[in-house]
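A.,

Following up on our hallway conversation. Structure tokens first:
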């Protein structure tokens, strides 16, 4: 059973609020939780109060082989809870892919104009 660390959306329309949780990989987004690990409030005016993560429990789940979602990996890398070097390498690869796609789209757009 693969465990993921991911966000679950709460809050009303246009007022998002997320809980950070350890969840079975196959569970739906707001499905059953193994353990709540914190929360994220993107609308909090004070940036320092936007995220609350229980670092000890996150380290525990990562040590047990839990996989963070891409967004959660960004959060954890900023806190130094995941390997920042591999995270930066993956980000560089992602950026390269995006740049290649843009270049390809631009080239195709230029061909259509001819």
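Then the amino acids I'd put at each of the 114 positions:
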């Amino acid at each position: 059973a693969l465990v993921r660390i991911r966000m679950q959306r709460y809050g009303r329309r246009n007022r998002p609020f997320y809980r950070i949780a350890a969840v079975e990989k196959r569970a739906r987004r707001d499905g059953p939780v193994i353990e709540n690990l914190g929360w994220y409030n993107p609308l909090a005016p004070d940036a320092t109060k936007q995220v609350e993560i229980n670092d000890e429990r996150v380290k525990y789940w990562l040590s047990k082989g839990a996989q963070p979602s891409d967004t959660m990996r960004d959060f954890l890398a900023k806190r130094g809870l995941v390997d920042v070097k591999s995270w930066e390498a993956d980000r560089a690869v992602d950026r390269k892919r995006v740049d290649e796609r843009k270049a390809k789209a631009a080239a195709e757009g230029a061909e259509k104009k001819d």
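The beta strands are 3-10, 17-24, 35-40, 51-53, 67-68. Curious whether your intuition agrees with the design.

B.
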